[in-house]
Design goal:
The protein has 294 residues and is of the alpha+beta class. Helices cover 31% and strands 17% of the residues. Strand 1 and strand 2 form a beta hairpin. Helix 6 packs across helix 9. The chain is flat.
Length: 294
C-alpha cells in the first residue's frame, strides 16, 4: 500500500503484528469478486477488513492532532480460509469433470487477479481441506483432492452449531431473534429459530447455491427479511487503486447493500449477511471460529 490515504481499524493485534501483514487479493466466497485480504507473514493466517456502518451515521476520527474524515468503524479479524476455498474447489471440480486434482492445479487459476498460492502457505491449510474434500495418495507425499458436497455441508453445519450457543451470551444476537422465539411453541421450533438465524449470519461467507444447500441440509426454509440500513461488509472489495485514492469517499465497490432507504420485506436474490440484525459495533462473525476442528 503505497498511497498515503489512511483509515482507522480496530484489532487485537499489536503494532508489530500489523507490520507483518501483506495485502493480497482473493476471491470473495460470496460473490467471487476479487477482494483484498491481509496475509500474516509471521503466523501464516488470513485476515479480512470489515466495515461496520451505522444507520445514516456520518462521523470522523480525531486522534492526537490528526483528523480522519472517514469515521467508519473497521475491524481486522481472522477469517477461516476454508470459506474462501469452498467455491474455488467447486469450480475446479466442474472444470475437471469431477476428477481428482493436485492442489497446485486447483489453486493456480486466475493468478492475474488473485493470490491463491498464499492459501497453500497457510498453517494447517492442506490438513483442513479434508473437511471439504475426498483425498487420494497417488505417490509418496503427493495427494490429490476433490470436493465432496456432503463433507462440505457437514462442515458448514458444524459452523452453525458453533454459532448457536453465542446467541445466549451476546445480547445483540439474542435480541435479533426474540420475537421469533416468542412465537415458537416447542423446543424444536426454538432450535430452528437459532439455526436459521445462524445460517443467515453465515451467508456472508457463502454464495447463493451453498446458502440454499445449507438451508435444505438443515431442514430450514428461506425467510423474508428486512434489509437494514446498517451492515457489516468486506471493506476491501475490487481494485485497491480505486479505493486508495486521494479524496476517495468512504464507500467502495462493495458486495453488500450500502446505506439507503429501508427496503420492503422480500426474499433476497443473494443472501445478505446480518440482514435481520442491527449490526452496529458487532464483532466479526469469523472471530467466533478461531479454533479449528481437529
Amino acid at each position: 500500500m503505497t498511497n498515503n490515504t489512511k483509515f482507522i481499524a480496530l484489532t487485537t493485534a499489536n503494532r508489530h503484528d500489523l507490520e507483518s501483514l501483506t495485502p493480497i487479493h482473493l476471491p470473495s466466497p460470496q460473490t467471487g469478486q476479487s477482494t483484498l485480504y491481509l496475509h500474516d507473514n509471521d503466523h501464516q493466517h488470513i485476515y479480512e477488513v470489515q466495515r461496520v456502518t451505522g444507520v445514516g451515521r456520518k462521523t470522523s476520527w480525531l486522534i492526537d492532532d490528526i483528523l480522519y474524515k472517514d469515521g467508519t468503524m473497521r475491524h481486522i479479524t481472522h477469517v477461516d480460509p476454508l470459506f474462501i476455498a469452498l467455491p474455488i474447489l467447486e469450480n475446479a471440480r466442474k472444470e475437471s469433470d469431477d476428477k481428482f486434482r493436485i492442489l497446485d492445479d486447483i489453486f493456480s487459476f486466475n493468478q492475474d487477479e488473485n493470490n491463491l498460492a498464499y492459501l497453500l502457505r497457510l498453517k494447517g491449510f492442506q490438513e483442513q481441506l479434508t473437511h471439504l474434500c475426498d483425498t487420494q495418495e497417488v505417490a509418496q507425499d503427493m495427494h490429490v483432492y476433490r470436493l465432496n458436497d456432503q463433507k462440505a455441508l457437514t462442515w458448514l453445519q458444524k459452523k452453525v452449531d458453533q454459532l448457536v450457543p453465542k446467541f445466549d451470551t451476546i445480547s445483540l444476537l439474542k435480541s435479533s431473534i426474540t420475537e421469533d422465539l416468542e412465537k415458537a411453541t416447542t423446543e424444536e421450533e426454538k432450535q430452528d429459530v437459532y439455526r436459521q438465524e445462524a445460517t443467515y449470519l453465515l451467508s456472508k461467507y457463502l454464495n447463493e447455491s451453498w446458502f440454499t444447500a445449507l438451508l435444505k441440509h438443515l431442514g430450514l426454509k428461506e425467510i423474508e427479511v428486512d434489509q437494514e440500513m446498517g451492515d457489516i461488509t468486506n471493506y476491501f472489495t475490487g481494485s485497491t487503486s480505486t479505493y486508495f485514492k486521494a479524496s476517495q469517499t468512504s464507500t467502495s465497490n462493495s458486495t453488500s447493500a450500502e446505506t439507503g432507504p429501508p427496503a420492503k420485506k422480500r426474499k433476497p436474490e443473494v443472501p445478505r449477511s446480518l440482514a435481520k440484525v442491527n449490526t452496529r459495533g458487532m464483532k466479526s462473525l469469523t472471530s467466533f471460529f478461531q479454533k479449528k476442528e481437529k
